[in-house]
Amino acid sequence: MGPASAGLEVEVPNLLRAAGLLVVHETLTSRSSSGGRFVSVRLTFRANSREEYESAHAALREHPEVKWTL
């Protein structure tokens, strides 16, 4: 989740691919907050180990516009 103006619908999959993970593009959805200031991006990616899973979250959290990951 991050600011609606950050283009996270494109950035999140790019960050995960750059981290070496397989992104399932057809699962990508986004939803704007009620006020329209924020957007949440949801997608599926494949992590073959806990280390890969942790690296995915680390890559996302390093982006200055990503405010939260789940």
Tell me what you see in this structure.
Strands 1-3-2 form a 3-stranded antiparallel β-sheet, with helices on one face. The model has no long low-confidence stretch (mean pLDDT 94). The protein is globular, with a radius of gyration of 12 Å. The chain has one domain. It is of the alpha+beta class and 70 residues long. Strand 2 and strand 3 form a beta hairpin. The chain contains 2 helices and 3 strands.
**Ends: how far apart?**
9 Å
Strand order of the largest sheet: 1-3-2
How many extended strands? 3
The best one-word shape is globular
Order of helices and strands: EHEEH
Number of domains: 1
Give the radius of gyration: 12 Å
Point out poorly predicted stretches: none
* SSE class: alpha+beta
Largest sheet: 3 strands, antiparallel
Topology summary:
Layout: E1 2-3, H1 8-18, E2 22-32, E3 38-46, H2 50-62
Antiparallel strand pairs: 1-3, 2-3
Q: Nutshell version of this structure?
A:
By secondary structure, the protein is of the alpha+beta class. 34% of the residues lie in helices and 31% in strands.
Task: Please tag this protein with its features.
70 residues; alpha+beta; 3 strands
